[in-house]
Amino acid sequence: MFLLGLREKKYLLTPHRLQEGIWTLIAAPVVCFPRDVLPEIRAICIGELGQWIQHYTTSFLTDGYLKYIGWSLHDKQREVRLRCLFALQGLYCSPETASQMELFTSRFKVNSRNISHWL
């Protein structure tokens, strides 16, 4: 009976295990997408990452995830850069999320002059 209790504890969902699962499902593919050959895949990934950040700000509105959007602003393909701008538009429209993005804004120099360059 004691061994059964130990096995059950092994499968309990802890915050650490939840973060590992999120990393496996969402973040790991995002880490690989900047190297993808097809710009369509990069554009889809950045768009989806933007959606995840918008809907789950407490978990994803961090520099660890925002940096992928920032890096993709300098992608060679216009479609990828445009998806980045749409993702950022959704984040900057909300005063709550915009206030949490000060470091990202300063690091990637997000302003109206750069936006015209990215298009």
Automatic annotation (TrEMBL):
GO biological process, one term: establishment of meiotic sister chromatid cohesion
Domain of life where this protein originates: Eukaryota
InterPro entries in the record: ARM-type_fold, Cohesin_Scc3/SA, SCD
Keyword Lipid biosynthesis assigned: no
Pfam family for this entry, one: SCD
One of the record's GO molecular function terms: chromatin binding
Swiss-Prot/TrEMBL keywords: Nucleus
Gene Ontology CC terms: chromatin; meiotic cohesin complex; nucleus
The SCD domain, residue ranges: 30-115
PANTHER family: COHESIN SUBUNIT SA-3 (PTHR11199:SF8), STROMAL ANTIGEN (PTHR11199)
Family: Belongs to the SCC3 family.
Protein name (database record): SCD domain-containing protein
Organism: Naja naja (Indian cobra)
